[in-house]
Write a structure and sequence with these properties.
This protein has about 400 residues and is an alpha/beta fold. Helices cover about 40% and strands about 20% of the residues. It has helices at about 65-75, 105-115, 125-135, 155-160, 165-170, 180-195, 245-255, 260-270, 270-275, 285-290, 295-320, 330-335, 335-345, 355-360, 385-395, and strands at about 10-15, 20-25, 30-40, 45-50, 55-60, 85-90, 100-105, 140-145, 200-210, 210-220, 220-225, 325-330, 365-370, 375-380. The strands form two sheets. Strands 5-4-3-2-1-6-8-7 form an eight-stranded mixed β-sheet, sandwiched between helices. A six-stranded mixed β-sheet has the order 11-10-9-12-14-13, with helices on both faces. It is globular and about 55 Å long. The mean pLDDT is about 95. Bound molecules: adenosine-5'-diphosphate (ADP). Adenosine-5'-diphosphate binds near residues 282, 283, 287, 329 and 331.
């Protein structure tokens, strides 16, 4: 029955030194528990657990992923994990072969390990999280949900780089795309809001958080996206540069006497809004600085908006027409000003802001923010944890039973 509750799912997002977790009902999206473990694997590990209005903090003696998982599962309902139907993991990269959410067995775990080279910072943490659950609650089923999976439908002309073919053939150097769970979720919500079948819609979804990407969704499938082999390609982000001339790497490496790895690290961690503004990686902070007269902060915002608008226009190429532009992520949901600037830059695509609706809609309420008669622009709050919980529940549901 729609809206009735289901057995909760534990959703884990294991990073290199943190674990974000939530226990939620895959039907209603209601959270029983949310929390964050920080400094995982270092001295001073701290697990913060929120249950309704109550927040508690634990410092597990064992600060490994396993120790943290013991705290998390203990807070749910007994160490065996009997309080949850299973665990859903956000896994950053599925490589070319893991193209859909999947129950984790030995073969899948080994396939995830095999893509480590494509995401060397993230995959080891994702694997450590899966192994920790296995060790703490061996009978608890686990599901992996891949950030790249939604983009497996990209055609070769969208995913191939114009580089020597052997780089692709022998090393898998191609565009993969990320934020897939979010793009998938908001495109389905957009169809619902528009009251039209997703299979008939041509959408551009813009996920704008600390990481930013935009995707062309045609008839429900991703046909192009701004991120590539790694999440560095495409839009300007909090600390990431997005697109640069590849020639910049050699130029800067020589000038600053750095190796390529060092330059790429700077492009990942000291660029984007932070690099341009010199103020912060945080969009809101940069906006405040611009409001206080900082020229560099104002320029950072101009570059951010210009590059985003240019990318949205480019994504209309594989769509042929634009039925709706969808804003999501912390910036897309919260900044009416950003949405206004983008719509203004894209007037030639028929977008025109409805100022009252744009001020009203946001993180709390999805809705249309462009005037009636113009091309549709929507705000849709994303919920990646809910997608992971739903995929997990669906894969673990006994065959023949309805969702
Ligand atoms: P993550 O990608 O880490 O999940 P979020 O989706 O929460 O991050 O997005 C974080 C970004 O959202 C930050 O740049 C932050 O400044 C921005 N943001 C949050 N609230 C607002 C707001 N009210 N106005 C403008 N930007 C905001």
């Amino acid at each position: 029955m729609a809206g009735s509750s289901a057995r909760p799912v534990l959703v884990l997002n294991c990073g290199s030194s943190s674990v974000k977790f939530a226990v939620l009902d895959p039907k209603t999206g209601q959270r029983a528990v949310t929390g964050l473990a920080e400094r995982v694997g270092s001295p001073g590990t701290e697990v913060t657990i929120r249950r309704g209005d109550e927040t508690s903090t634990e410092q597990p003696q064992d600060g490994s992923y396993e120790g943290v998982l013991r705290s998390v599962l203990g807070s749910v309902d007994g160490l065996d994990g009997s309080g949850v139907a299973g665990v859903g993991h956000r896994v950053v990269h599925g490589g070319p072969d893991l193209t859909t959410s999947v129950v984790v067995d030995d073969e899948v775990l080994s396939a995830i390990r095999d893509v480590t080279d494509l995401a060397p910072l993230h995959i080891p943490a994702n694997v450590a999280g899966i192994e920790a659950v296995r060790s703490v609650a061996p009978d608890l089923p686990q599901v992996a949900v891949f950030d790249t999976a939604f983009h497996h439908t990209l055609p070769p002309h969208a995913y191939r780089y114009a580089v020597p073919a052997s780089w692709y053939d022998e090393h898998g150097a191609r565009r993969y795309g990320f934020h897939g769970t979010s793009h998938r979720y908001v495109s389905a919500c957009a169809a619902e809001l528009l009251g039209r079948p997703l299979e008939s819609l041509r959408l551009v979804t813009a996920h704008l958080g600390n990481g930013c990407s935009a995707t062309a969704v045609r008839d429900g499938v991703s046909v192009d996206t701004t991120m590539g082999l790694t999440p560095l390609e495409g839009l300007v982000m909090g600390t990431r540069s997005g697109d640069v001339d590849p020639g910049l790497l050699g130029y800067v490496a020589e000038r600053l006497d750095m190796d390529v790895r060092g330059v790429v690290d700077e492009l990942n961690t000291r660029s984007g809004l932070l690099g341009l503004s010199g103020v912060s990686h945080d969009f809101r902070t940069v906006s405040e600085a611009a409001g206080d007269g900082s020229r560099s902060a104002a320029l950072a915002l101009e570059v951010f908006v210009y590059r985003l608008a240019k990318a949205v226009a480019a994504l209309v190429v594989p769509l042929g027409r634009l039925d709706a532009l969808v804003f999501t992520g912390g910036i897309g949901e919260n900044s009416a000003e950003l949405r206004r600037s983008v719509m203004t830059s894209l007037g030639h695509l028929g977008l025109a802001e409805d100022a009252a609706a744009n001020a009203d809609h946001g993180r709390e309420t999805a809705g249309r923010v462009s005037v009636s008669g113009s091309t549709v622009a929507l705000v849709v709050p994303t919920d990646e944890e809910l997608v992971i919980a739903r995929d997990t529940e669906a894969l673990l549901r006994p065959a023949g039973t309805a969702g």
